[in-house]
Prior knowledge:
five-stranded mixed beta sheet, 40% helix, alpha/beta
Amino acid sequence: MRLSLTLFRIKRKLQLLSVFVLLNTAGISFASCERTLQAPAWNAGQSIIVRNSKVSGILPKLFSEEVKKVGCEINFVSVPPSRAAEMFKNGTADLLMLTFKTPLREELGEFIPLIQGRAQLISLDQKHSKISTIQQLLTTPEIHLMLVRGYDFGADYQQLVVQLQKQGRITFQPDALSVARMMKRVIDGRTIATIMAPTVFYAAIFDDDRVGDMVDKLRLEPLNELPWAETGTYLSKFSMQENDRQLLRSVLNDIAQSNAYWKEIQSNYPARFLKESMRPIEKNH
């Protein structure tokens, strides 16, 4: 009797083990996030769209679909870029979805690159001499920069902001659309220009009746000090549990390696706004 019971238990354990193996083979994961993850969202071209506090776009859709497969959920919260940066800094945001890699953010989170991008000087002025360096921009007083508060493209960009503030040649706006509306004006005889990813600027204006006519008139100029840089998502080192961060890391790396994000980008933007501003990351990054 005791032998029969022992054999029964062994058989039962083998059956349970077989089920576990089959489920894993079928791609069913038992891991899941410990809680709903928080991700601030702001208008960032077609990648992130916020309308009436509702968040959509390429990345929210892609992220939601992929993290669901590993038992996670993301709550997207509509905030301005400056507020998103503050939330990530104080640990109330788990993800910073679409940003350049910077030393400051490296202290706060783990960076997962999704694409390569670069900000450019954008203006309507077709008359000024070619500008390809920050020094040339600093010595062109007829250009007044209108920048989005909270954007950060690295140390050279931050130094440029400081220098232009000393010259009284800089104004901040809450978003790209606000910048575009100001670019149609002239301040004290000076041309309004901005620095940001051309794709973000394009998506902010192309279907807006007030500024949509600017699309074919824009002048896009890369600056040498703002080179190609990795653009991606930061996972918080402070607010997320290690298990959750590991799951998200795996999901985002899969997205990057498959170039799923880049393929969506290509189908949503004119080639002119992608040239010299966005490209896929190298395989096996």
